[in-house]
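Appendix B, example 12.
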Amino acid sequence: MRIKRPDNKNAQSMMESAENEMNFILTLKPTEQSSQTIIRTIYEAFRILGDALLVSKGIESTDHLEPINELIKLNVKTERSLNLLDNLRRLRHNINYYGYKPSIEELENAISLAKNLFEPLLKEVKKRNIWTNFRNIYKI
């Protein structure tokens, strides 16, 4: 982790990017052929969202674990556990580095995680970014 100046504009841009990616990827038809791409992109949207949270705090992450852990630490009510994001991280790692071919069940689970966790996390990260920006402007 590297400490930097909080960058709320960059965090906002990252949140928008993550939201756009998630909205797009969930329009694709889940098939065996699309499973790797869909899972990677779902994971990446969560990672970017976690990075946005870190950037708004003035922290530059050095790996994928830090942004995911930031999301897991949030106190957000969801239908599924936020700890499942770490499983998604490991699944994406296996896809990228070991050529793992996810099953349709794993794909459906990743889509379910996206549908259940992304929106509540996005709202919380946006709320925190607004508050951080407010504090920085008014030096609270």
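The two ends are 25 Å apart (CA to CA). The chain has a mean pLDDT of 92.
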